[in-house]
Amino acid sequence: MVYKEGDGLLTEKFDNLVKQLRVLPGVGQKTAQRMALHLLNGKRPQGSALAQALDIAMHGIIECQQCHSFSDDEVCPICLDPRRDDSVLCVVETAADVMAIEQSAGYRGRYFVLGGHLSPLDGINADDLNIDQLVNRVKATPVEELILATSTTVEGQTTAHFISEAVRRHVGKVTRIAQGIPMGGELEYLDSMTLSQALQNRS
Amino acid sequence: MVYKEGDGLLTEKFDNLVKQLRVLPGVGQKTAQRMALHLLNGKRPQGSALAQALDIAMHGIIECQQCHSFSDDEVCPICLDPRRDDSVLCVVETAADVMAIEQSAGYRGRYFVLGGHLSPLDGINADDLNIDQLVNRVKATPVEELILATSTTVEGQTTAHFISEAVRRHVGKVTRIAQGIPMGGELEYLDSMTLSQALQNRS
Q1: Residues A167-184: pLDDT tens digits?
Q2: pLDDT tier at B7, thresholds 50, 70, 90
Q3: Nearest-neighbour CA in chain B from A61: distance (Å)
């Protein structure tokens, strides 16, 4: 007889901790057990600190009223930052994308988070994204350039095209994040779509 | 400029969550970010449940007064279980070992957790382990067989030998968990120590 899901491990509190840890992405039964034991064996203060941070984050992180990214307050630090360039607005799918672009540190304009991409097959239409809010945003506060930084999947491309049509009359110019060969990419291992795009967009 | 540890990511609450998640074993900066985003994007109730389970476990899981494994109450469910065989006592290093043996489901006796192994170089001597308690335990409640299931490292072997000497006068017999070739093991890839042990202990 081997371990079956649902069997008790050690104690009720331990079993529940293991079960709840499995909500984390990439964490299965064995990893969850290892995490629980690691915390219980001499990392209890850190475990309590994690519990508190989780609780605060789950209840306290809200959506920024301006850019719809994650925020502790009504308006996020990036929207409040006076050193940011108001004339450029970068449209991304999720708050994770904001974080990725911020970490590359090559951008000093503002952001706008759509909350996903158009995907009619999954039932995600224009009404489910913050597209109306985006149009209102560029109507109320004019921007010179709107950068479409949605992903380069079919859905991301469709979303970019849709938004481009919706805002074209209200902004100076609409640009699309560059597609091409990633840094360190070897030509022979790249897919032909990327390669043909990279050749077309040569500069 | 790329991301440096200590930089802010999105918001204070988010950054703190990412920082605290890194206490989990095998979780680095990127994985912690992914976990935090995963919970914030539509898994908030589960995140709150995890926070609660963590908090309860960190404060509520104590050491069983009898076997020194993890327990929710003064005495753990295994020590309380009347169907367990009182005549056999299995001595292990940690509560994780109890869990591993329980999951193999081949053992129905009692357990005793030492709390580690002897390691003079790391300053862990007999006084730092529950060895006195073990001797008192077998003096108070006689057992027919004491199984030494410490690990098969040098420290584990030394610990087993030390305990064997300490309890020999008080128990019927002292046995050592079998050493040999693991299930599915291929001879050519095994280390020579295991192989020579397996040959010596042939049955």
Answers
A1: 989 998 999 988 888 888
A2: low
A3: 7
Token pair in block for residue B164:
């064997």
Fold of B84-185: Dna Topoisomerase Vi A Subunit; Chain: A, domain 2 (3.40.1360)
pLDDT, residue B2, reads: 39
Specify the pLDDT at position A4. 43
Q: What is the pLDDT of residues B127-137, one digit of tens each?
A: 999 999 999 99
Chains A–B, number of C-beta pairs less than 8 Å apart: 200
Q: Count the Cβ atoms, other than its own, within 10 Å of residue A46.
A: 16
Burial A156-184 (b: 16+ CB within 10 A, else e): bbebbebbbebbeebbeebeebeeeeeee
Length of chain B: 203
Which residues in chain A have their CB less than 8 angstroms from residue B102's CB? 9-10
- Chain A residues near residue B50 by CB distance under 8 angstroms: 20-21, 23-24, 54
- Beta bridge partners, B70, equal B63
User: What pLDDT digit, counting tens, does each position of B12-42 carry?
Assistant: 999 999 999 999 999 999 999 999 999 998 8
Q: State the maximum Cα–Cα separation within chain A, in Å, rounded to a whole number.
A: 69
Judged by CB atoms within 8 Å, which residues 72-91 of B form the interface with A? 72, 76-77
Q: For residue A166, which of A115, A118, A132, A142 has the smallest C-alpha distance?
A: A132
Gap from B120 CA to chain A (nearest CA, Å): 20
Segments making up each domain of chain A, as ranges: 12-60, 83-186
Contact list in A for residue B29 (CB cut-off 8 A) is none
Residue count of chain A, please give it.
203
A6: left (phi over 0), alpha (psi -120 to 50) or beta: left
Pick among 3.40.50.300, 3.40.1360.10, 3.80.30.20, 3.40.50.11540: CATH of A83-186: 3.40.1360.10
Q: What is the DSSP string of B98-163?
A: HHHHHHHT---EEEEE-SS--BGGGTB-GGGTTHHHHHHHHHHS--SEEEE---SSHHHHHHHHHH
- Taking alpha carbons only, the member of A18, A78, A195, A113 closest to residue B57 is A18
**CA dist., res. B90 & res. B107, Å (int):** 9
How far does the CA of residue B30 sit from the closest CA of chain A (Å)?
A: 11
Per DSSP, the three-state class of A149 is coil
Indicate the CATH number for domain A12-60.
1.10.8.420
